[in-house]
Amino acid sequence: MVQSHWMRQENLLGGGWEVHSEAGWWKLTQECSGEEPHRRADWKHCPQRENGRGGSGTAEGGREPAFPAPGLQGRHKELQPGPEAHQGQGPAGHALSEPGSLWPENAGSPGCLELEKSVSNPRPMPWKDRNSSGAEAAQCQESYVQAASDASRAIDINSSDIKALYRRCQALEHLGKLDQAFKDVQRCATLEPRNQNFQETLRRLNTSIQEKLRVQFSTDSRVQKMFEILLDENSEADKREKAANNLIVLGREEAGAEKIFQNNGVALLLQLLDTKKPELVLAAVRTLSGMCSGHRARATVILQAVRIDRICSLMAVENEEMSLAVCNLLQAIIDSLSGEDKQEIRGKEEALVPDTKKDLKQITSHLLDMLVSKKVSGQGRDQALNLLNKNVPRKDLAIHDNSRTIYVVDNGLRKILKVVGQVPDLPSCLPLTDNTRMLASILINKLYDDLRCDPERDHFRKICEEYITGKFDPQDMDKNLNAIQTVSGILQGPFDLGNQLLGLKGVMEMMVALCGSERETDQLVAVEALIHASTKLSRATFIITNGVSLLKQIYKTTKNEKIKIRTLVGLCKLGSAGGTDYGLRQFAEGSTEKLAKQCRKWLCNTAIDTRTRRWAVEGLAYLTLDADVKDDFVQDVPALQAMFELAETSDKTILYSVATTLVNCTNSYDVKEVIPELVQLAKFSKQHVPEEHPKDKKDFIDMRVKRLLKAGVISALACMVKADSAILTDQTKELLARVFLALCDNPKDRGTIVAQGGGKALIPLALEGTDVGKVKAAHALAKIAAVSNPDIAFPGERVYEVVRPLVSLLDTQRDGLQNYEALLGLTNLSGRSDKLRQKIFKERALPDIENYMFENHDQLRQAATECMCNMVLNKEVQERFLADGNDRLKLVVLLCGEDDDKLQNAAAGALAMLTGAHKKLCLKMTQVTTQWLEILQRLCLHDQLSVQHRGLVIAYNLLAADAELAKKLVESELLEILTVVGKQEPDEKKAEVVQAARECLIKCMDYGFIKPVC
């Protein structure tokens, strides 16, 4: 047995070599004392021994090694200690010609290395050398982990041990840890920069790392790995979650979605759906949604594979997150089947396009079935209604085809009416959320508005009449409740249709009868129906005559807070039937204030449920038409904040009531202009003349606005704008836009509005909604953009979305104030960056801006000229001035001669930048009008230093443009003007002006037209 010891050996091969054996391992190293580590040593070969165990020489003392050093058998021509290149193949199949290989040429072939082993005078080896040598031996035995460990211990002792670093690099490379190997060889190259082996190894490892990264991050590899993790039940939870999120992200990318699709991804995603685990099912649904987006072929295949009934069953679950994700999947499928395909298909003109109408009709049919299924959760029903709201009615009434609406009316209107007529307190009620009935009312309204002719509307009305009259049953009070609730729901949708249904025999009588019922549910439904029925003045008058006493009786006798507050709202609505007309008060003086006080009390009572408190806001929405009520309300800060908190809750049916209340408080509703002659005529003919309340004057309105801002109205409005698009109707958006415009009226308040997120919230209101709402929101944006830093008011890319609404306000059909403030806003934006100037140019705002430069109105002309002054920095705008056959440059020159200082300042600034940008424009300026020289001289002598400075810059540009033109200027009185200005002593205010004049004189000296006086 060979003992574990270290010995120094004088080798026959001419170098100092150490042969050691430790725990059965043999080690051969070169001791390179006095040599460079990379220097080649001479190695000699001995004749091959028959037993293949070594050389013929014996060790000192006549002993031979007990067994050959593993890995060193075989003949070789030359061994190189240290990191040098070798030829041949190593045991691991690596090319030994690559740098860093320790394997000798012809390793494993017959041959030997003759060694002398001496046991005399043994000397211990230092720890550094022991670990370094151990690393080499371990590498020879392919024990790369041990080799790396030994080398690491050597490096710990001496961090500059280049042999150990290189050996660890090789071991780590074999172990596949290329990044760590790269760091080691990089360290080696730093220590010995001229060593070509290190440089070659660096290049080789870099190539290997890049290839490994390419494979590792290739889409195919990522997809496969993620599915393996997700489908492996033994995978860790965090790994599964990460894989699911990565799969979702990948599915949203076109390349990733295609790879998933091609690699049997749909089948694997179906397996995830089968797991029934919510997090995996959710990931699968979101991935499928990404794959369907904008790709008709994939959407069709996925729809056939997953099946619409399964998709609807997933959407029907109680989990809100799951229901919303499946809704997005269905929306993506519908968009892909009905919209434009993102994928460009070659030869698509001749291609057969599959008809998707059948699939779309099938989806619509299943969604309608979901509305009346008891197995569907309230969340699922809401999402089904959302999808129908978004996809059935035409988005543009100019489109002739409304076949989807006709199909839904024929096959699904009764189902929608059933949802509208649900009474939550009845045991037979379907699962609902707070928003379900409102969503159904909105859908009925959209379907009714989408009908094209009277026969279609008559058919719609007949279906509603048959459904309601079919529900009336003297023997079944629950059916009667459903009928009245249906009428109430329709009144919240297509109001004209609801009014016609109120005229049906027995409807109003049934409402009054239910009010007198002893059952609280009957009273609740009846009072709500009366509230909605009394919107029209004629109906309200009928109810005031026949039902007010009954409502008062219910209010006094009932102990149920829900009924009490609804009765109160009914009284509020009847009390406000006269609107803002101070002379048409329905109740006695002070009655409305008492009702409002009770509403505010309920609103602040957090012990009452949200749905009940919502009715308090509904009551205030009517009562705040009275100026006394709204003045008291804005002073009640707790009530205001309670209303704002309700607006931010999940129950979004309150949005319209909150918006209406705020419109009333800010007086932002439309007010007809009072013509004195017509007022006198009305009085003469003894007709009623509307009276304005004293507290509706401008001063009171401004005070209410300040109190609303202080209470935090902007944050509430910003939250309301983010609501679901089906709940946030175009009418509600218009109301919000009106409120924003009223709040932005005072320039001092605009900073507060921006700080609380008002600028960002206005952008969607200006882009979507009614025409009136978009104009109001755009006007509010213009007010903010005119005085605010765009980078703060509209951070990031949002600022580019502001341009289009502002440009729309330049239409000559808009009023002058809107034109003026839009120009101010565009001026501010155009001064920020060339990208914004380019955006304004692409929105075709230049013709409108030029048009207002011709305007007779001084302020409009000044604002347009200031905007053009900023826009001329853009190259495309400059090209418009360079083009022949137009008077743009002439207009700017003539505007420089106007008497208005601000107008002169803007025009001179534009002219200075134009003449500085193009020499051709300098020559053109002298040709467009004969007054150019006189105007230039006036600018150079102007009292306003800013205008004078611009004039001198124009003069310098003309002097620098052409020698002949410069000569003409020098021969005129301009030289005398320049001399006088240039001789002035420059102070802080005049420094720029004097410097500009002196530069003009220096230019004249360069031409040789003038000489300095010694």
UniProtKB/TrEMBL annotation:
Gene3D superfamilies: Leucine-rich Repeat Variant (1.25.10.10), Tetratricopeptide repeat domain (1.25.40.10). The keyword DNA-binding does not apply. It is found in: Cytoplasm, Myofibril, Sarcomere, A band; Cytoplasm, Myofibril, Sarcomere, Z line; Cytoplasm, Perinuclear region. Its main location: cytoplasm. The keyword Repeat applies. Residues 416-574 form the UNC-45/Cro1/She4 central domain. Residues 35-52 have a biased composition (Basic and acidic residues). Residues 34-138 are annotated as: Disordered. GO terms for biological process: cell differentiation; muscle organ development; protein folding. It holds the Pfam family UNC45-central. Interacts with HSP90 in an ATP-independent manner. Interacts with UBE4B; the interaction may target UNC45B for proteasomal degradation. Acts as a co-chaperone for HSP90 and is required for proper folding of the myosin motor domain. Plays a role in sarcomere formation during muscle cell development. Is necessary for normal early lens development. This is Protein unc-45 homolog B. It comes from Aotus nancymaae. The gene is UNC45B.
